Fold these 2 entries.
Entry 1:
Amino acid sequence: MNTESSRSPVDEVFGRAAAGERRAVGRLLSIVEAGGPQADEVTELTHGRTGTAHIVGITGAPGAGKSTLTGQLVAHIVACGGRPAVLAVDPSSPLTGGAILGDRIRMDDLAGGDVFIRSMATRGHSGGLALAVPAALRVLAAAGYDPVIVETVGVGQVEVDVAGTADTTVVVVTPGTGDAVQANKAGLLEVADVFVVNKADRPGASDTRRDLELMLDLSHLSGLDAAAGRRPPIVMSDALQGAGATEVWAEVVAHRAWLVANDRLEGRRASRSRHEVRVRVEQLLEADVDALLAAPSGQQLLDSVAAGELSPAAAAHTLRSDLLAAD
Amino acid sequence: MTEPNIRILLAKLGLDGHDRGLKVVARLLRDAGMEVIYLGLRQTAESIVAAAEQEDADAIGLSMHNAGHLTLAPRMVAALAVAELEIPVIVGGIVPDEDVAALRDAGVAAVLGPGAPAEEVVDVVRRAVDQRRSTG
Ligand SMILES: Nc1nc2c(ncn2[C@@H]2O[C@H](COP(=O)(O)OP(=O)(O)OP(=O)(O)O)[C@@H](O)[C@H]2O)c(=O)[nH]1
Ligand SMILES: [Mg+2]
């Protein structure tokens, strides 16, 4: 199909995006976000063209200062001659599907220069987020942005996964209200490569740091430190004043260097691909299962279950056999 | 598939003060199922164009409260034209009747007064976006 005549609109937009045209990058991001055949086409084009862009996840509780810190990091990266992009993910309202995406205002004065910031709503479909985010990160990397930073609220499993499968994951906690303990519960400790205690201008910051140190001290009990091979550093920051951003970024860069020096970067990327492929297979299967259940034979099975003639387990096994026999 | 979600940028041009009204509009558009990219205060035509490109916005909502609308809104429309972005601009705020026609002539898609009910605000945005999608 590689003839000139089959050149689709997606191809054309991709060409412009790869040449650095921002509007085209913006369009591609909408296409991958919508999902479907066109999104797959974009993934086909961007896959393998993402170069060596450093993918950085920033996560933490709502209001921890992730966007403010990201804004400071981006300013620092630009000053160092980098060309960063940010994907800021915020929750959609489960009731209406609408969202207020307000991360940009925290990164205010940066929209100029060669910084690309995109806001993305979770749109209720959590499975979709797990596909849309990696696809969007690839678009940004293929357009030549490096690093590519993704901000997510560290509450839902998918959001934690999304940030946790980055090359480097920064977990932001704040003083008071047991934030470090909450982060532990939310599974954020497992994914952290760098900790930031933000709002360090507030009372209790050193207590929070100590809580984190204690939890890290204990992590050998769970085997976590052996799996990680490295104790994550803790950096204090006051993102509102910009204090600490340089140190945070230095630790992010150091983490990547550590990954490379210890042959772990490829492993991270492999587990990321594995995760994505798995989610995609699940989605494909889900559609197949729905189709199977809607078909007359599926309907018959369901009727038998409802009538008490067949157990749900037996019906499921039959359906799976049908599914495997289908192609 | 259903229509893609409407993505609208909300901003206040120029130097004037508070964004309470803009926040109210942000909430009501969200409650109508739209994705509101909130840019807040002190935006310029250039910063809005840059955000519109990156966010692939379907519409731009501008709030104005002092007499700047006659220069600022047309400047916004012109900046979009220069960037070859066909995105409808909707102006909200206190605009004297005699200025509404001037804004429409300058290419503003719609003007909403401060008392416009929620349904009207939502409806005006939907119609402006529908029109663009059907012609674009
Ligand atoms: N005192 C203080 N306030 C901060 C600091 N960093 C951020 N803030 C404030 O905390 C609030 C939330 O900051 P954001 O950057 O929007 O936080 P966020 O984690 O991105 O929030 P969500 O995206 O809504 O989850 C804002 O009012 C910031 O001004 C800091 O270091 N010190
Ligand atoms: Mg944020």
Entry 2:
Amino acid sequence: MKNFVKLFYDLEQTNQQQEKINLICNYLHQVDDEEKIWMLALFTGRRPRRMATTLLQKKWALERCELPEWLFDECYAAVGDMAETISLLLPATEKSEEHSLSFWIKYILALEEKDEDERKLAVLNAWDKLSNQERFIFNKIVSATLKIDTPQNLLVKALAHYTGLNSAGIMHKLMSKWTPDGITFVNLLQVNSNTVQEVSAPYPFLLAQNLDSGFEQMQEPADWLIEWKWDGLRVQIIKREGKLFIWNRAEELLNDKFPEFLFLEEALPDGTVIDGEILAYKNGKILPYHLLQSRISKKHVNAKALAEVPAVFFAFDILELDAKDIRELTLSERRKMLAELLDKLSLKNIQLSGSIEVSSWEELANLRNASRSYAAEGFMLKRKDSIYESGRQHGNWLKWKIDPLCIDAVLIYAQTGSGSRSNLFTEYTFGLWEEGKLISITKASGGISDREQLAIDKWVRQNTIEKFGPVRTVKPGLVFELGFEGIQESTRHKSGMALRFPVILKWRLDKKIEEADTLASLRKILESFKP
Amino acid sequence: MNSILINLYFFVMVKELNLYENDLLCNSFTYFASLMSMSFIPRTHLLQLSPKGLYCPIGDFYIDPSRAVDRAVITHAHGDHVKAGMKHYLTHQDSSPIIKLRIGTTANIQGLAYGETLNINGVNLSFHPAGHIIGSSQVRLEYKGEIWVVSGDYKIEDDGVCTAFESVKCHTFITESTFGLPIYKWAPQAEVFNEVNAWWQQNRERGLTSIILSYALGKAQRILHHLDPGIGEIFVHGSIKETNDAFRNAGIMVKDFPVVLSGKSKDHYRGAIIVAPPNWANANWLKKFQPYATASASGWMATRGSKQKMPADKGFTLSDHADWEGLNKAVKDSKAERVLVTHGYTKVFSKWLNELGLEAYELHHFGSNIFDSNTQIAEHSNLGGEAE
Ligand SMILES: [Zn+2]
Ligand SMILES: [Zn+2]
């Protein structure tokens, strides 16, 4: 299990993505195909079921190391992980034996048939043969608590590099239903991989450009399809050869994340590709994007999340119908086909994105000011006679976003960044005035040049008042202009408000801290958001 | 004050008697003898904890005091054990050059060799090797046949650089307990340095500069001694060079290495290893060596949690303190009747010793009702105090 243990610990010690990919690649080169399958199983959450609780393992370990329980508990308090505590406390291995990860997983799977006494003997026997770090991994697998933090897309990239296969295909294979027993590495990734990839593959997404220039070259509003720009998750929903695929722009297959759309596998006709946006939508209102985001980031979407953050799909384009690529048709024609299809099927949770009719650009500009009250962040403008091209193109699709909101806030805490910035204070928390005190309102980063960053880092070091772990409280002295795209009430924040997408716009060297904004002024902005 | 003192000693006596009665089977002939010798006159403790540090009332001196006093006995030159402002310092002769370096050449320092005895108001004081860093000592005090030993910081394994730990028999042993949990078990240092050298070699093959973060006093000399010069060039940060020079000028042989210079091009250091103190290795300084890999070496690296908190690419478990077994061995070999535990996991380790049948207390609880409760005892924090 040496190789797997080394991979696990090495991955834990780096936060550079490329390095993680290299480590996985090297590992794949070192181990046989059987071990690869088990590694993929563990990395994708397909772990063996629990054969002994951590408490049971603790009981066995206590007998083996002859320590009083209170001392064990003190150790656990210092380590914070039961499997690791046990691995550190067990007597040193006298005669270690090297076996593959597959060997030990099969060993663990065989515990299933055993009663508790036999399981205990088997676990003690394994402990005698494993090194400290191997014991840790072994204990984690036995108690079904092994957690791998490496993101799936890095695993997929490493596999793509190792096999030479296309990453979308690999992602799809990994996400599909498979179990580690009864499948070989070759079967899992290679067989049918090409056809699978073609069947599932999304079209390259057409991306909108920012509307920078005025309306001189845009002719009449009637030439454009105008939609609210919602802040959602852009996806293509694909139904081909009886299978459904929901892809985001990062080529991640999201079927697992959206059980509410899985019925489309039945409902949509074969050979359909719809482009659109998933939004969190409840009681006739669009919910903030971060709620959808946190729902997606969970491994398993439970009933609670489904009820609290229901998802709907706003369809705005159709790229394939009756298994025919229709991207060369004009937007008007495609919209008509999309509207007819949706009308015919009348699908739950799926709707055609609405369009806005205005007679002049001035009228639209006025409407734009009300964007926020519709929970929109501006408009999408799409030329009605345009075809669906790939990538960011030509100004046929434009987004006209509302300006970010902004405030001047004072730096109050600084924290070191991660990775290559772990020695620089690059993460900041800002405060606004209230009754002569600065109340923390948000963290924000970005928008600062490297040179400014170094200057701020130095300033933080010289003006530290207190240290709490990596966080430093600094003397109020620096003012920054922060932009944000929304604001909502929040009980989790001291200020009672949470900003959406806060970014640092500018270091206001010209401003004194007394000139920074007050909490009251932020509350005013919040009020303006309420319908 | 006086009556409180007497009460306390009475309390201690009763406690000892109880212990004796409860444990009749224990081979406590010495115990019996010591109780007899006390007769009914309250015995003064050779050392007591006072607000300024560990105090010897008979000899009128302090050991590793945290505030300015007239006579300070210093176990070793780490910052949490030696402070500026003492009228007189008494320490091992090899600690003198570092105390001078850190506090100033005007400091009034008297140095003793290991085993050399000095009589202070009838208290015989001598230093014995603690194996922690160069010059580190256990302090042995003897008064009318009663012996107390203060361990200071210590480790059992011979690190090849400083004089190895020697066990000293005593009646009362005051021990540190930085790593006083059984999860701390050090691998032999040869294994750790094989890992360190392999890491350096691998970085070198990848065209990286290796930067190992280490305190200037102690850990740095130990690492430098065990780096394999066959792999590549070895450089040190200026503050380590300064420490090494202080040793060398005093005639203490430590290996000498060139200081890393800021004016040189990055390529100059590619594939080399640089030993630097963590407080100097900020992003600005490090970026001069891009591309590089960093490592830190400490006993805290034994657990994944602390390893992950460390802003270094790699963590090696290497400590200049005793591990769990080392602490137990030192206590056992001292043959002490009473153990006072300080500096670390005091509660855990004293409770453990109690369960083994030893009389053990946390130092700051021992006699604590005599003194202010605000007595400060230097603690090694796992966020990295001077010593770790
Ligand atoms: Zn210390
Ligand atoms: Zn020390």
